[in-house]
Each structure stands twice: as C-alpha cells, then as structure tokens.
Amino acid sequence: MGLFSKKSNPAPGSFLPRTELLSRLLALDDRGPFSISPGVDTDLLITNEAVNKSWATGKKKVSYQARLLLDEATATAYFWELLKESSSGLQFSIGVEKTRIKGKELFRSISEKGYGLNGQPVYDYQFDYGSLREALKQMIEQSGWSFKLVLTQGKTKR
User: Fold this and answer.
1) Strand order in the sheet with 121-128
2) What is the full DSSP assignment across the chain?
3) Mind listing the pLDDT tens digit for each residue in 118-140?
4) Can you give the pLDDT at residue 102?
5) What tens digit of pLDDT does each residue of 9-49 get?
6) Can you say whether the dihedral through the CA atoms of 138, 143, 144, 147 is positive or negative?
7) Residue 127: its pLDDT value, please?
C-alpha cells in the first residue's frame, strides 16, 4: 500500500481508537523521506531536513517540522507545521517554486539547485510538504477523526 492509498472508512459515528490510529501514522515513517516519531509533549513529531550544505562561500539549510496531537474526547487531530529556510554567503541558484493557498493551508513544492562561485553544484533538492499533510489528513479522516490545522504550536501540546 502506498503513502496515498485509501483504506475503507469506519462506520458513521465511530472512530478508530487513538492507539491504533497512532500505530498507523507511525508506520508512515517507513514510506517517505520524513522522520515520524512519538513526541514527549505531543503524540507525533515529524521532521525532514531537505538540505543542509556548507561550502567555501556560503551555506543553505531547509528544514521542516510538524506536530500532531490526537484528542480522543472529540476525535480531533490537531496538526501544526513549520518550514524554515536559511542561507548565507555567495551562491547562484536555479529553482522552481509552486505555491497555492487554500484557506489557511499553504501548499508549496520547491525544486532548487545551487552552485558555488566556481560553478560546481553544492546542493540539489526537491521538497513538497503539502503532500505529507494531505496524506495524514486522508488517513485521519478515513479513521473517523476530524483533522484541524492549527496556526500555533501550543495547540498541539498536552
């Protein structure tokens, strides 16, 4: 079964128990470039470092983090995410970025290649974090839970 494969929906009014849904979500760790692990003050931590390179005249880092908290009393999954980019120094880069906004959801895919002053490639990456959110949302909703995107990290803490 692929990352985007569908499973059958539970009966109306019922939802998968929290522990079983967590197990299914943790199993996604084997299917993609993201690291999915249990959290200390939340249910799941999701991370990815798309690029982290340094060269003689600069550096570039792109990292992603997300948190998911499951509230069994309301059968709601609260999801928060952050994409952090930083770069410094001298570089030349070529890339394509596609961004789409739907309500408070941002869908963004990036493909970028960077070159140092000598013309040698220093990094090359592709990243689409909207696809991860959609895969999680689909699995959560098919399990009978509601999915809620939150804007502050605090709403995903116990």
Assistant:
1) 92-102, 105-115, 121-128
2) --TT---PPPPTT----HHHHHHHHHHGGGGSSSEEEE-SSSSEEEEEEEEEEEETTEEEEEEEEEEEEEETTTTEEEEEEEEEEEEEES-EEEEEEEEEEETTEEEEEEEEEEE-TTS-EEEEEEEEHHHHHHHHHHHHHHTT-EEEE-SSGGGG--
3) 888 999 988 887 888 888 999 99
4) 76
5) 454 568 999 999 999 999 887 777 889 999 999 999 999 99
6) negative
7) 84
